[in-house]
Design brief:
The protein is of the alpha/beta class. The protein has 26 helices and 31 strands. A six-stranded mixed β-sheet has the order 9-8-12-13-11-14, with helices on one face. A four-stranded antiparallel β-sheet has the order 6-5-16-18. It binds one RNA strand of 76 nucleotides through strand 10, strand 14, helix 7, helix 10 and helix 16.
RNA sequence: GGGUGCUUAGCUCAGUUUGUAGAGCGUCUCGUUUACACCGAGAGGGUCAGCGGUUCAAGUCCGUUAGCACCCACCA
């Protein structure tokens, strides 16, 4: 197909037919270019509309979760963005002023790691380049990546307003970051402090608590003897140190035996500043107030008590290393103990006086081995037993975290979290599915301060300047000339950068122009309507956004947070590069087409947000459906818009609406219109409720099972009847158009391709289906009585088809059929639908008769509702086969009859169940009576 | 140690107002009726993990047990 001459409206009158086979790849590229060129993704300007006194259009806005520049398009993005695109396209078609803001994240640590790795291949380190050059190099790299990622994302057919694309490190957003930092600092919500943090020795940076992932590991518990220090002699109680395990615990002899400490990290013992026991632990009463010697360095340290110590763990004796353990740090604070640093920022033992020469500079795990060996040699190692425990790892590089006491910047999160909880309480924000609310609340309720400084070069450098003279800090939007405290000009900017999530936390408003609150986008689109993301990012991102938004903009950044599940591999395992079980979305798009892929993904979404196990064959369904839709569209177009290739086709459909005079419409016409409008109604409801999977299923079902299998099939007949032809054409045109519009949010490409070829109906056609009006149900067409009538007709069709099949009666051979019923409703329905039955079952005639009429001998019967559906057979029927078939049917019905009877005889049921339910059961029972009677009498004749 | 989710047809899974179960794939049978064999028609297949409770009525609500998965937590 070709859209080269743009303005597709001008090209029709005689549009070429759709190609026989859909070339998905070709239309995807072509149509995406068309959309972009026509700037269809930009929010329409409400002011340009002529009648400004009509109800003002709603606004719908959403920001994309910015993908990392280091990443490639993966399944998670595919799902996340498909959902967002469905919402965006739906709202756009509804006429809302719709903005979907795209952009990317500079991904501090991840990006720096990648660029450093690249430098390494050139035998360079970042220090070789220096900060400025390194950052410049990283910028170059990230710009190229941004372009690549945008290209990849476009393969998904998504429709964000690319003109507005943002980057967390671009100028506007950097300004927002500085503004946020300064504001929060001035409010006392950001401060610098020396505190124990999670330190990654490989990244040589602090990371936050949630960037630390804990993993179970098999390790050991070492028990180490700390000899008692003799105050008067200034020495060990026993310089040669002979140790007798029997006398260790509970020893009350004088001199005291060494204290035995249990630890999982012997390499930190050189940094011990005290030993703690539980105050009530009778075993160690005699040691309290004494001093013991740190092994290998013989430094005396006090034995103190603290109820924190668990007497039942290990030996009940805890060593305190404040500089390298979070709990020890807290204990040291309460007991006013000064920390001793023994491990440096690269994870090696420091070159410090407290550390024996031989151990200085050793990598921490090597140091562990060496120290163990030394202790063994000194006979201070009492035992080493296997121990299973959790070890923190760096989220980005899996390096074991070293808790490290260091000077860092922190956000005081408790007051911020409080605002979020209040806002939740006030109903200003909701989660779908609701259960995530609990996690959100739990996390915010016990939140700790957030370490936001990173010892990296790639990121927003902290807008704080230190004074060399007075040590004061000046926090400012712009670089100050002098120190605000002492006017010294000996100042330098803090070298650290901010956590990436600091800038992402501002995303919903920084992208809209904040801190300029008069910016048009901020005014029109903030706060946003919905945020769509995965649960793995609720703490990292969602909660940070709500905290910052409340503190800085005074409102919740979005109304609804839609949380979807994770895409897993077919075994249910998380997809990861290291496991090699990832599926490339682009590959699937190549296989089944973007529309097929998106449809499949969407149909797999559940309202409960279950994880999705994906495999190649699961996306097949979408491909098949795309083909079906394509073929059905070809049929319709062939019959409403003849072409040069197809001169024998019907005259082109006129632009008139479907004849509103119902009487001129056939039963089939009215039925499909009723079903169509019902589908429209449901589709809108489902989308409004974020029920994407059901929306996909609904449309598949309507398109395939109602429109294609019944209406289109029957239209083949109606098109041959002059009196019905025009309405049939109009219905085909309008319902097909509607199907494509309803499906456009999920299948943007095929629907556009077909829409461009459909002749205009009563409404003028839009430039693109993506800005055409989403169908709204016209409820006057919805007719439940009609639906019931048609159900009777179709059930009779099915019964007759069954009979044909049972007896292998070829469809080449027309048959006669009889329906026996006393029900007026059924008789009317079948009279009205006789031609339908006749057409679908290849009938000569359908004879409708009262039920007492005798059934001809040698007949096949089926029971449907209150009808006996009978096909008289000329030949001899297989009596045995027929008997057993009927018997089985009879037995099934009997069982149902018995159950139903029992229920209706239950006084409780009749009295307490809603009347409608009771009535329903009654009528089913009477139906069963008739069916059983029919079956019994037939069985009796079969002898 | 807390918490959440899952257990429904051979497989993968839907099923938010309690009214006796659905889809896709697969299986079996039939069919080249010009939109579609990437199709059409028909069939078979489930004591909804176990146990207990509430209710006239439970896949659906409550409790409990088991298995699986995940999240959170400072026991050295």
């Amino acid at each position: 197909m070709s859209l080269s001459n743009q303005s597709p409206q001008t090209q029709e009158n005689n549009p070429p037919p759709l190609e026989k086979k859909l070339n998905a790849k070709a239309i995807e590229a072509e149509l995406y270019a068309f959309w972009e060129k026509a700037q269809l993704f930009a929010p329409k300007q409400p002011h340009t509309e002529t009648n400004n006194n009509s109800e003002s259009p709603e606004t719908f806005s959403m920001v994309i979760p910015p993908p990392n520049v280091t990443g490639v398009l993966h399944m998670g993005h595919a799902l996340d963005n498909t959902i967002q695109d469905i919402l965006t396209r739906w709202h756009r078609m509804r006429g809302d002023v719709t903005l979907w803001m795209p952009g990317m994240d500079h991904a501090g640590i991840a990006t720096q790691n990648v660029v450093e790795k690249q430098l390494k291949t050139r035998n360079l380190t970042k220090s070789d380049l220096g900060r400025e050059k390194f950052v410049e190099e990283t910028w170059q790299w990230s710009r190229a990546r941004q372009a690549d990622i945008a290209t990849q994302f476009k393969r998904l057919g998504i429709s964000p307003d690319w003109q507005r694309q943002r980057f967390t490190l671009d100028e506007g957003l950097s300004k927002a970051v500085r503004h946020a930092f300064v504001t929060l600092y001035n409010q006392g919500l950001i401060h610098q402090d020396t505190y124990i943090v999670n330190w990654c020795p490989r990244c040589t940076s602090a990371i936050s608590d949630i960037e630390t992932e804990y993993q179970d590991q098999d390790s050991f518990l070492w028990e180490i003897a700390y000899p008692v220090f003799n105050e008067t002699s200034g020495q060990n109680t026993s310089p040669e140190f002979s140790y007798n395990p029997e006398t260790v615990a509970g020893a009350k002899t004088d001199p005291l035996s060494p204290l035995v400490v249990a630890t999982t990290r012997p390499e930190t013992l050189l940094g011990d500043v005290a030993i703690a026991v539980h105050p009530d632990d009778s075993r160690y009463k005699a040691y309290i107030g004494q001093k013991v010697c740190v092994p290998l360095s013989n430094r005396p340290i006090p034995v103190i008590t603290d109820p924190y110590v668990d007497s039942s763990f290990g030996t009940g004796v805890l060593k305190i290393t404040p500089a390298h353990d979070p709990n020890d740090f807290k204990l040291a604070q309460t007991h006013r103990l000064d920390p001793i640093w023994v491990i440096d920022e690269t994870g090696c033992l420091k070159k410090a006086e407290q550390i024996p020469q031989a151990l200085q500079g050793l990598e921490r795990f090597e140091a562990r081995k060496q120290i163990e060996a030394c202790l063994k040699e000194n006979k201070q190692l009492i035992s080493k037993t296997p121990h299973h425990h959790r070890v923190g790892q760096c989220q980005r590089c899996q390096t074991v975290i070293e808790p490290l006491l260091s000077k860092q910047w922190f956000v005081k999160t408790k007051p911020l979290a409080k605002q979020c909880l209040a806002s939740l309480e006030a109903g200003e924000i909701r989660f779908i599915p609701e259960r995530w609310t609990k996690d959100y609340v739990r996390w915010l309720s016990k939140i700790e301060d957030w370490c936001i400084s990173r010892q990296l070069w790639w990121g927003h450098q902290i807008p704080a300047w230190h004074c060399k003279d007075c040590q004061g800090i000046t926090v400012s939007l712009e670089e100050p000339e002098t120190c605000t405290h002492c006017r010294s000009n000996e100042i330098y900017q803090d070298p650290d950068v901010l956590d990436t999530w600091f800038s992402s936390g501002l995303w919903p408003f920084s992208t809209m122009g904040w801190p300029d609150t008069t910016a048009p986008d901020y005014q029109r689109f903030y706060p946003t309507s919905v945020l769509v993301t995965g649960f793995d990012i609720i703490f990292f991102w969602v909660a940070r956004m709500t905290m910052f938004a409340h503190a800085l903009t005074g409102q919740s950044p979005f109304e609804t947070v839609y949380i979807h599940g994770l895409i897993r591999d077919e075994k249910g395992q998380k997809m990861s590069k290291s496991k090699g079980n990832t599926i490339d979305p682009v590959e699937l798009i190549e296989d089944v087409g973007c529309d097929g892929f998106r449809f499949s993904l969407t149909s797999l979404i559940t309202y409960g947000g279950q994880d999705i196990k994906l495999s190649k064959d699961k996306v097949e369904q979408g491909r098949l459906f795309t083909t079906k839709l394509w073929n059905a569209s070809r049929f319709v177009l062939m019959n409403i818009a003849p072409t040069e290739d197809n001169p024998s086709a019907l005259p082109q459909v006129d632009a008139l609406p479907i004849n509103v005079d119902r009487e001129s419409l056939s039963l089939m016409d009215r039925w499909i219109l009723s079903s169509y409008h019902q589908t429209i109604q449901q589709a809108n409801e489902l989308l409004a409720q974020f029920k994407f999977g059901e929306y996909a299923d609904l449309l598949l079902d309507f398109t395939w099972n109602n429109f294609c299998d019944w209406y289109v099939e029957f239209a083949k007949k109606q098109l041959q009847i002059p009196a019905l032809q025009q309405n049939t054409q109009r219905i085909l045109r309008d319902v097909l158009t509607g199907i494509h519009q309803l499906l456009h949010p999920v299948m943007p490409f095929v629907t556009e391709a077909v829409y461009q070829k459909i002749p205009a109906g009563p409404q003028e056609k839009a430039v693109s289906i993506s800005v055409s009006a989403f169908p709204q149900a016209d409820t006057q067409w919805i007719d439940t009585t009609l639906t019931q009538q048609m159900a009777i007709v179709l059930n009779v069709v099915k019964a007759l088809r069954n009979s044909r099949q049972q007896y292998g009666i070829s469809y080449q051979m027309p048959i006669n059929a009889m329906v026996f019923t006393d029900s007026d409703e059924e008789r009317q329905a079948l009279t009205a639908g006789e031609d339908i039955v006749a057409y679908f079952v290849k009938l000569d005639a359908l004879h409708i008769q009262p039920s007492e009429t005798d059934v001809p001998k040698n007949s096949v019967i089926q029971v449907v509702g209150q009808c006996k559906v009978v096909v008289p057979l000329d030949g001899v029927i297989d009596v045995e086969k027929e008997r057993s078939r009927l018997k089985k049917k009879r037995d099934d019905l009997k069982k149902e009859h018995t159950d139903l009877n029992a229920r209706l005889n239950n006084v409780g049921f009749v009295e307490r169940a809603p009347a409608a339910v009771v009535e329903k059961n009654r009528s089913r029972l009477s139906e069963l009576d008739k069916q059983l009677l029919a079956l019994e009498s037939q069985l009796n004749t079969l002898t």
